[in-house]
Amino acid sequence: MAWNNWTRKAAATVGSLALVTALAACGGSGAGGGAGAGDGESKAPEDIQVGVAMPTETSERWIADGASVKKQLEEAGYTVDLQFANDDIPTQQQQIDQMITKGDDILVVASIDGTALSTQLQAAADANIPIIAYDRLINGTENVDFYVTFDNYNVGVQQATSLLTGLGLLDADGKKTDKKGPLNVELFAGSIDDNNAHFFWKGAMDTLQPYLDDKTIVVKSGQTDIQQAATLRWSQEEAQSRMEDLITAHYAGGKTKIDGILSPFDGISRGVITALSNAGYGKTMKAGLPVVTGQDAEIASVKLIDDGVQYSTIFKDTRKLATQAVDAVKAYAGGGEPEANDTETYDNGKKVVPSFLLDSDIVIKDNIKSLLVDSEYYTAEEVKAGQSK
Questions:
Q1: What does the UniProt keyword field contain (predicted)?
Q2: For 66-88, how does the pLDDT look when each residue is reduced to its tens digit (9 = 90+)?
Q3: Cα–chain center distance at 245
Q4: Would 298 disulfide with which of 37, 89, 251, 266, CB 3.0-4.6 Å?
């Protein structure tokens, strides 16, 4: 999809649009490999409706993302069509179809399944609508123009690093300690149809592999492949069920304790912790709860960290991600292209998608205040209650 086709779309309704001077081309190409995206006419924010497709409202994280994107776009003067798909692929497909039919001018899409939107994105390309992939890469199509996300490989590195620190194998400065193994660890991955899950897994496994190789840490179940560790739709319930099965099969009776759990998401972590608690960890057994990692700094898990139940999570500030999405919208609305800081990493099978990557932080009990409260992401009262207002 070439962004210079925006000119034709604008011309069809020029009587109702406030067109301003076209920006000079700034290189690159839109989806489909057309002419430079900067060749199009710019449009005023009040003349643009932005469709925002989010995957679900069952996760605190995605509710926060949707709210942040909507708020910042509206503050910039855009009309926003925000939809949540309840983790149902046909629902998200239908929502995007409707956005295109209604004439939404730019789409911001956090996909449920990164391979399930080819038909919708082709329709968007045919209608000259730019597509911004939000946090989850959309795969198998040329019709995605830009990608805003965090450095997902590094998120996996951070998860594994926090696990090793919690186990006492690394100190606070990331240096190896004198602690010896073997320590029993089980591994969880995200939803296999989410491109990010693979980056998280690779970053984590690259970090853990030396410790697995020398038997400092041992996966007693032998489940060290992402297909074995995957959790469909990042489901808390599925994670709990798998953890229960692992305990029954490999740690029955508490004779062999579990020392750590690599978890890529706070919802999965809470499912794991429930299974462990039901099996006596932290209660009747002498062994306390294992070191459990997480991601997304969901308030329920932040409270668990503050209470000493969950060890860590990864904080990805959705406000900053929303800002990058809004900046991308502004660039396309202005007839140009968003600024990328990565043009090599994210190959979706059809093209390398220009991307903007943000940094993330490891949250443990000692830095909840500095990272989450002082930044006004949560209040101290919300952390204490484990619930956002």
A1: Signal
A2: 999 999 999 999 999 999 999 99
A3: 27
A4: 266
